[in-house]
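ok so i was messing around last nite and threw this chain in just to see what happens. nothing serious, just curious
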Amino acid sequence: MDVFQQILMDFSWASLLLLIGMFLRAKLKVLQKLFIPVSVVAGLFGVLVGPEVLGKFCPVYIHWSENVSSFANPLLAILFVTQFIGLKFNKNMIKKCFLVFLISATVISAQVLSAMGLGRLFGLPDGAALLPFGGFYGAHGIPQTIAGIYKTLGYWSYDAASSFGTTYATLGMLYGVIVGIAILNLGIRKGWVVAENTGNLTDEEYKGILKKEHQFKFMQAYTSDMAFDPLALHFAIVLGIMLVSYGLLYILHMVPLFAGFAIYVPAILVSLVFGVVVKKTPMVELIDNESLEHIGSLALEYLIASAIATMKLDVILNNAGAILTIAAVGLLLTTAILMILPRLWLKTNWLENAIVMFGAWSGSTATGMMLLRIADPEMETDAGPNLVAATPLWQISTQNFYLTIAPMFIVTAAGFRSLALGTFGLLAAALLLGFIVGRK
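result:
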């Protein structure tokens, strides 16, 4: 079987798992109540029917090719391209957005510092310290970014690093839903929730299947199907940016400092430039941001399903104590910060703002928005817009630094110490600025 057939088979297996995941999510109440995404269900089922479980005692199981581990970087790059092309900054709510950014920097610093200290205590590779943050802030897709850099540098096995990060993401998502709902129940009893119509999600939102009367068309077509398919237009834009990004990556790799960069780094840069330029041209009328978002979501679904399904269980089991301890400490610190700082700095609608950040920074943005829908079904507060408007700030700055630059520093002893000092400085600066800006 040639390489193309192997890749096609891998995507075919992932597609089958996604369909099974959708069926299981629609039928099993426990998956609905925990709000587990279909891609995560698909990946976990894939572990059971893959080489790590079923393959141990049965000759019939899912065979993944050796190429499956190379999917992560290109799929992540596609996701980042679709996110950064249409990136918009909200000029309103500047103060609150800045405070949300400072809270984000505080949470990231706490997660990274605690993982650095505990990782040394448990004797883990220093690079493992960045994986909890990757899993908590970006769910299952983002840790693959860090794992890819370690693989490029020859520092750590991609499969091992990816398994660490995927485990943290799964633990964070479960924690975000279970503890998030508990916090909401407490907040409702205490009167911390502003909205009067606080309630639960609909049956459709739990099951993930829309009734016929609620189904919708997500795409705005700017080209005629007879001339050029609208989806093909947007896919061509994304892959055109990817082509330019690979050219830029080739140039960057000529510089030793940038030798560890993967494709998503230039993809972010090129898509940002493309987004700024295209807004000043008539071509902006041809781009439908919602269509781009769905292309990015498509890449993410396959990335999550394949990443979880190919986890190395022996790596996780051999380090279970360290992983659980680091995850527990990081998530408890996240909870404490988000129950204190929003109340001190944001004042109004503080719990709604705290709960959407709590879900987004322990599980995923979808988890945060789900919790906010329970707290504020009519979206009457500013919590959702604050998170959306502040997201570009921390994505471009702190998140990108810890995803792309920090992994190249942490692999050396001097880099580890420098990163620890720098992260402590970020924590101190974020807290100081937060108390100054949010004092009134």
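not much to say yet. The chain has a mean pLDDT of 82.
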